[in-house]
## 1
Amino acid sequence: MTKHTFAQLESVLRDMDPAPRVLTDDERERAVTTRDLILSTPSAEHVRIAPDRQVRRRRRALVAVAAAATAAVAVPTAIGGATAFASWTATPQPLSRSDVSAAATTCQSALGIGGRDARPVIGEKRGGWTYVLVGGPTGEGACLMSNDLVGTPGDTASKRGFLGTFDADPPSAPTPPPDGFVETESMQGSIPLRGRLPFTTTDGWLSWVSGYVGGDVVGISLHPPMGPDVTATVSQGRFSAWWPANGAKQGAGGVWTYTVTLADGTSRPAQPAGY
């Protein structure tokens, strides 16, 4: 039997603590805003502040997590529990054309998206993880996979560090205002990951969001309630981003806000069209 010293156990417990040691001023302000929102809510059925956005986002999250559970299996990967997303970066790296094609092929295979007309719309890499959004007449899917799975067969990918969603009947593409955007999907999901201690696992929770942008929008930044600001990938009239949730539990992602950057170089806070 493997014995662990007190120092080792203390290190593991500290890594599992979702609370950061020090908050920046922006993080503290967003945390206070979220706290005040919770305290001002008399019950789960009566949200006084922005109720429509809260309810609609939560509903999509539950549906998306269910789709991930049925369309593609998320299973343990070799990356260690609390540090599973340690390589994640707030600013994405673009993928080469060959890597986008390989990631899209793996995603389509794992989710069962057929048809030669399916094509990658967005491809990005954040540290050790690759994200791809694929669309076509037979449906739309999004996949997050560890970089070593890019280009592997779908049945292999779905048995390892992989999370995917698939919509066989996506709604018609909305028409956002030229200087705005429409959020069409936001969800929270998890990838079971190998824990720090032998024979243990932990869920690596994450949030992701995607949608459509107007013709004048060249950049979108997201501001989670805790953690760094996240730069979305904007491509072909679409945007998408994902980030690790704070804390290894469902619901830890919180509510986020947006800033858009326009073609003339100006940036401003913005809300999704329709909210």
Note: Residues 93 and 125 are 5 Å apart (CA to CA).
## 2
Amino acid sequence: MRPACPGDTENGNCFRSRFTTLMSLYPSPQLSPIRIWTIGLPIAAGWAVYAIVFTVASALVVLSTLGLIAATLLAIAYVAKQVTLQNDFDDRLDAETKSLQGQLQQLLDAIPRDTSPVNQASLVLPSTRFSPRTISEMSAACEAGRGLLNRLRAQRAQTIAVLANLDSGVLLVNQKGRVTMANAAAKRFFSISWEPVGKPLVEAIRQPELLEAVRLVVKDKAPRDVVADLRDAEGNRRVLRVLCAAVSFEDVTAVLLTARDESENHQVEEMRREFVANVSHELKTPLAAIKGYAETVELAISDDPEAAIHFVSQIHDQCRRLERLIADMMTLARAQAGKQHLRLATVDLDAVIAESIATYAPVAAAKDITLLHEPSQGQPANVYADREATLTIANNVIGNAIRYTPDGGQVVATARLDGDFAVLSVRDNGIGIPQHEQQRVFERFYRADKSRKHHSSGTGLGL
């Protein structure tokens, strides 16, 4: 637009009159108990005024430098676009306003330093004119800033997505001991059902050794490795290995906690230790029995042949017991080494059960246990499997049932088809397995509660 009084433009009176007319659209300070400042910034090149930037706020807000600078930058971006579209590059910047810094400084200098009430409803800033070079530079800077902001947003979104899907728990704690970041795994590991960001770490984590480790890391910047033994909301045990390390952002030091769930490894290690203790006992017992029986046979073979035969039979039983223990250990070793080769073929489950029952018939008879086989009805229960491995499964299940069934009890083994699957089922009237332990019967080295262990020996590897 063109000013109506170009002759008076030098002193700004023409623009001020137009500015006052525009300001009449805003409420007068006398009509409101809240004092406001209205700042108008004319953007002009030559005689042309391309835009006017108004900032309207309370007196305290106007004094906020950051808000004012943000509004000015938005205006500069808009004007740069308009001037570029109109190709109006005739004028040059004044010497005192050749840089963006100069433009902003003029704007800041025009802001009053006191907060006393003002009678004027408006504050007019000096007219500002831009050169083509400055406009181009500002436009490029705005585009570069916008691109940088978009990249930062994308990187932040990517970082948040990665942290959210990590298996490890991640917590960031500032020097004041407050949580500044926590991913989903960390909340799950430490049973945090609320948002911990902004809260003291002591409210989120109740482990004294972990809190002490964080305090020491803040003090000496040396990393700490802590094993935390926790209980979740359901009372289940959870073992975490937490690495506490100092991280620096410019002059600020924070503590990064990285937690890894090692509950399963810890549980397996405990069962392995128990297994070693059990095996030591299980191996010593039959060896001691064999030694005693052999010495008795040596003494009685000439005087009491019948007693010698009985003791020889006991020696054979103990040897078979040792053989089973060693077979279990060898099977485990082969499986862990990846050397368990299966010979797959069509296997009749009923035939496997019959062979297993024949093997355990003497053991069942010794305890007066009735051992029955109920063959499948109709179509044979055939599976595609390794026959020896399938027989081992049947022996383990049937032998386990006989071992934990009291004298005079009953064990029934059946095979049947169930859709695309075949089911090998063993029923008995023994002591059973508690409901809360049934889900663990297939874990290596696991044996049910200690009340069952006095009934029989075992390694926990059968199933």
Note: The mean pLDDT is 71.
